[in-house]
Amino acid sequence: xxxxxxxxxxxxxxxxxxxxxxxxxxxxxxxxxxxxxxxxxxxxxxxxxxxxxxxxxxxxxxxxxxxxxxxxxxxxxxxxxxxxxxxxxxxxxxxxxxxxxxxxxxxxxxxxxxxxxxxxxxxxxxxxxxxxxxxxxxxxxxxxxxxxxxxxxxxxxxxxxxxxxxxxxxxxxxxxxxxxxxxxxxxxxxxxxxxxxxxxxxxxxxxxxxxxxxxxxxxxxxxxxxxxxxxxxxxxxxxxxxxxxxxxxxxxxxxxxxxxxxxxxxxxxxxxxxxxxxxxxxxxxxxxxxxxxxxxxxxxxxxxxxxxxxxxxxxxxxxxxxxxxxxxxxxxxxxxxxxxxxxxxxxxxxxxxxxxxxxxxxxxxxxxxxxxxxxxxxxxxxxxxxxxxxxxxxxxxxxxxxxxxxxxxxxxxxxxxxxxxxxxxxxxxxxxxxxxxxxxxxxxxxxxxxxxxxxxxxxxxxxxxxxxxxxxxxxxx
Length: 477
What we know:
By secondary structure, this protein is mainly alpha-helical. The chain is built from 17 helices and four strands. The strands form two sheets. The protein has a two-stranded antiparallel sheet. Strand 3 (196-197) and strand 4 (200-201) form a beta hairpin. It is globular, with a radius of gyration of 24 Å. 43% of the residues are buried.
């Protein structure tokens, strides 16, 4: 894979695009378009390496840094830690676990007769912490700056608009095959045969894989459905037309999992009450958190899942069976250093007697638990799950039906994103922005209730103190 000059130029120019966003748009729109636009448009796999001590700049890190730069230019000072709560504990865990894992993995691994994996040390741990901090920047920014009801509306509106705009290159690739990344950036980021399905093609555009595009399309359908329920227009066409058009696009994307997600989420968003939606989102988060232990305890009904998949498509059943086999051997490897993992650089993988890597790491959960153990898994997935639980607790404080519906829709999108990290590794800055925005909105709702309560407490306390002072002066002593 050799990136052309346009790929490098796109990476260097994205901060300038972000500055233009922040200069011409309100802060919430600028931040959302900076993160989401980077996911949709920047090249996959292209990097800028400045020096050995600085993490490489790529599709995942440049939009985050550009969003931070935009906040500075807009004179909105970012705040990373303001108080100590459960979210802060998870954040500190997320920034500490690379150091702990590196400190415990200084040994050399001899994988077969031809492969030697050196130990990792403090320098590697610090480098991982730097990358992790950059990776989590959207969470910090979303939590601080996207916490109002208008911000939730804007996130869903931009998500639906992005789906409409992205449908143009998607339809081109559905018709002509996924070639846009090659035509623009000069290389194909993934195997072409993976995008051939059912006598046609899955669009890949600039997102690296057709499954990621299908999942994004599904979330845009959910956003359009939520806006339709609130009677908010996102284009010249009526909201129901936008939702229907994006639904057809989801079917054409040929992503079975994304289509199943849509079949569950869209009816919920359109018909169910917000409290039912957030409960379903909490169930999604619980399943994702419990999956590793359930998988190790053989509580996941893999046989039933394989039979159901085979009744639909034998090829997909074989693919699913292959994933389960890979999970089992990677879990066996991870169980040897279960608490803090093996670290990076392929130490968590499985090798044959000749030192050849024979493992395939598809799920983000198995990658995380293999590299950083249960501690790292709970830090990352806990940081995704906590905003959902917070939103469920704050739902009763919403001041309008629309606010509650949008809060629930965002919780559902984040919850299904956690589920999607079990078979796939597709977490990105956009996911962290949604997570931070959802937590910020939940905290803002609870704050609106606490302030009047505190004010009433002071108002009742002041007369009591005054009465005590008067009684003191009237005391004959």
